[in-house]
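Below is how a single chain appears once it has passed through the pipeline. First comes the sequence as given, then the structure the pipeline wrote out for it. We keep one example in the README because the format questions we get most often are answered faster by looking than by reading.
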Amino acid sequence: MIDYEAYAQIRNYFTRDHLRYSQIANKLGLDQRTVAIWANEKKYRARKSSPRKSKLDPFKNHIIQMLEKHQYTAQQIYQRIKEDGFKGRITIVEDYVRKIRPPKIKAYLKLAFAPGECAQVDWGSYGTVRVGSTTRRLSFFVMVLCHSRMMYLEFTVSQTMEHFLGCHLNAFHFFGAVPGKIMVDNLKSAVLKRTVGCAPVFNPGYLDFANYYGFSIVACNVRKGNEKGRVENAVGYVKKNLLNGLDIPDFCVMESVAKTWVDTIANVRTHGETGKRPLDMFKEEASLLGRLPATPYDVSQVSQVRASPQYRISLDGNSYTVPAQLAGVRLTLKKYPDRICLYHGNDLVARHARCYDRKQDIQNQDHSRILLAQRKKAADQAIYMKFLTLSDKAKEYYLQLGQRRLNPFLHIRKIVALSEIYPKEQVALAIEDAIKFDAFSSEYITNILEQRLRPTEEPGVLHVTRSSDLLNLTIDPPDLSIYNIGDKNV
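Resulting structure:
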């Protein structure tokens, strides 16, 4: 007995390629008689297995009649036929009941939406993604307009409230308008509490956002994902068509990936249900959507934080600086998807781009200026006090440096350094001498110290040469005959 694949090959070789039985047999490694039988068969006939007798056979018709009257369980059926003389086990009863019982398929109404009436939103997740030196869960937000199937897609590494509202805001600007209502799942960002028979309790932040943009919230029933089937299908479409097999080097590329995919594939494909491109249907729907307000909603989430002694606050595993004078002070933190803002009272004291890497120290150099200035001032004060201990005339010397429009601290710092090299008594004398000589700079002090400490040699005996000691020297005239000028001797 051959399988269907071998049958199809035999038929193709015989009817299409017009090969002989022997040629087909050689190609497929089959017996020529087998090929001859199947080459002329217009339909494949599977081997019929001989039915095996079962202890349940006498009771099968009765079981069918029972199931037609009522949805009995396999256990109930087993108990009843056992009373009628069945000697087998319950497992064969369960197998047979499972085989003949009609499947339970729920019927669902096909929902239809008018243009501009409704949009559906949902989150999707797809493994992890590289963010700098760490990895985070890759999430994506999808909003689908129910009539046109126009889709908005945005990737994030978080599903917190500020991201949820921020994705809504970006979707509205993508569509250039607002739908009349939005259908959501029972996620905490939208629905706080859901009790059977009672109206859902919406998240106050989401409700305020909805009131600002003028749309109503429709929450699906618990475990009724079919009620927002359009966005459920869209989430699966993103996973299968875009993310399946996609190489993602880092999260930073996902914004351009999403935009390109939506513009060139998702919204210009012919939709399987409508038979039209979402972009074409959106042109008809756009005019029926609500208008955007003049100013966008503030999607930030506000919390109270306390700056550390190192004048930093922590968020998402990273630290952010605040002005140094606010170390240990309670501040108001406003978290946006792309930035954070810190307030002291009503004053904005720090603003940083939000980082989704981990263990990063995000600094603003201006935040350290006051602390550095204080440290420099303290260091200068310590040098000044040490300078005053060098001499009773030190303060007068310092004032004279200032009157000559010099940088006093530059010079006294060098003079204090000289006190580490030269004896302090010598430095004190040099300061007093410099005042007498009206010489005001660290270079003068250095010169005085070097001159004082330089060793001097005792003067030697003076020798005077007398005229009688001079020798009379007679110099003979030179012999000029050895020089020739022309042909003459000179």
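The CA atoms of residues 1 and 49 lie 12 Å apart.

See the next section for the split statistics.
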